[in-house]
């Protein structure tokens, strides 16, 4: 049996810019940031006051933040999801606000906050009956899930997988990143020479991934192809990336091999680009190692929507696909002066690229995890 | 290519051991998972074992036993192309409670990074990756029915398609942990076939029951 192509036939996101890829894309191209002073909870004890939240969500009232986000997201798309789709849910902390509420007020139960519990809710919300699983790998969660979904389709184990991703800005995660001194005091500035940390963001996203054969049979519009994937671990440090970048280099090379393309065929890179000094330096070292002197256009969306944690990969894949469709690489918002090692690779302006481009999407996270995906 | 199960390590509230070697040890009074670093479980010193959360201690202990069972040497200095998938229903719930209660009881002003790092369900696998030098794919998973079978399929796929050279795939529930080492190996070095292992993990979610069935299988196959 020949390998089956994994194609994306539906995708949507809810980001701090609002509902839809259009809203996020417009914000990016306008060079806007949705990172603002936090009002959801007091940040006076924390390292930063800035985060990117979705307006209108209720905190510690009724449903969890991610359930509210996913309900909004699937309200307009439920009809497009085939009931027999397998579900792959990606998140780091899911409904952790339910645990906060339990500890603060005694309302509910602690185990309502588990990812396993959220999985059952998302199965109900999406009406999928093909079986469900959670994939959680820190801030690579949703890119890892998308890669596994594509692998299952290529290897003939499934022909329709719904990947759903979500994470929210809570006092739990904000205080945690603050304790690690990972937050910038101002909105995140990925790849800037004065960058000093990340801004926490929140998002929900989904991608419906099918075999090419099924997409053709159902006359689905193909938005793009997940052509290759690579996953690796630094095996080095729990919270910091390897300074040698060998883990991300391995993931990128695996993704290029999996896609059957050479490094020279990559048209642009959607980087993880958190804005922390170590992450961005690690990524640039990896890019230089793989692409040598060819300065491939690189951007990060995290100056615009913050670091959406487990949802970051899927949101960034959706934006990268839009970049491919529009033949435009979006700007890195909040970039004022590129760090020396990123100069010529990143830009605060949008850039035109050719048609039929190949995108590389990279993500990294705690425990030294790395993912790389090639989108065609 | 012959993908097989080469080693299985396990840990319960009362003891620990491995399937192929048949090693089985009972905890003495006062011993438990917190004692594993002192009981000769690890072939190299485990720096800071005491600061790991319970899920991480159980994971690294069961992984060490699975590697031992397979006769595989390891070193954090000599990294190996092997990945790890860990599953459990509760994920990082215990560490989540520990972190946020501590933060709350400290007046919502002091948050502890050393507690926060274990609030990711994949952190236990991260500790294993660092100690055993595992550079392959790593993630936490859970399925609606709590079964390990789907993740075992994924692990096997990764080895078959040469995404990685081998995979550790395991399950932790309550006080019990179980890890399988799956790789492409010589026929005479095999504990059981994948089909056999998958049939067992798909038949029950109970770790003790999986262990019992694996032990019966071993006897049937005449592995001593």
Question: What can you see in these coordinates?
Answer:
The complex is a heterodimer of chains A (376) and B (224). With 376 residues, chain A is α/β, with parallel strands linked by helices. Helices cover 32% and strands 21% of the residues of chain A. In chain A, strand 11, helix 9 and strand 12 form a beta-alpha-beta unit. In chain A, helix 2 packs parallel to helix 4, helix 5 crosses helix 11 and helix 8 crosses helix 9. The mean pLDDT of chain B is 93. In chain B, 36% of the residues lie in helices and 21% in strands. In chain B, strands 1, 2, 3, 4, 5, 6, 7 and 8 form an eight-stranded mixed sheet that branches. The interface between A and B is large, with 58 and 55 residues. Strand 6 of chain A pairs antiparallel with strand 5 of chain B.
**Cα distance, first to last residue of chain B?**
25 Å
Please trace the helix and strand order of chain B, writing H or E for each element.
EEEHEHHHEHEEEHH
Give me the Rg of chain A, rounded.
Answer: 19 Å
Helix content of chain A: 25-40%
Strand content of chain B: 15-25%
Secondary structure category of chain A: alpha/beta
Q: Label the structural class of chain B.
A: alpha+beta
Gap between N and C termini of chain A: 22 Å
How many strands in all of chain A?
A: 16
Task: Tell me, rounded to a whole number, the average pLDDT of chain A.
Answer: 97
| Protein chains sharing the most extensive interface | A-B, 58 and 55 residues
The outline of chain B comes out as globular
- Helix share, percent of chain B: 25-40%
Question: Biggest sheet of chain A: strands, sense, closure?
Answer: 11 strands, mixed
Q: What is the percentage of strand-forming residues of chain A?
A: 15-25%
Overall pLDDT score of chain B: 93
How would you sum up the major sheet of chain B? 8 strands, mixed
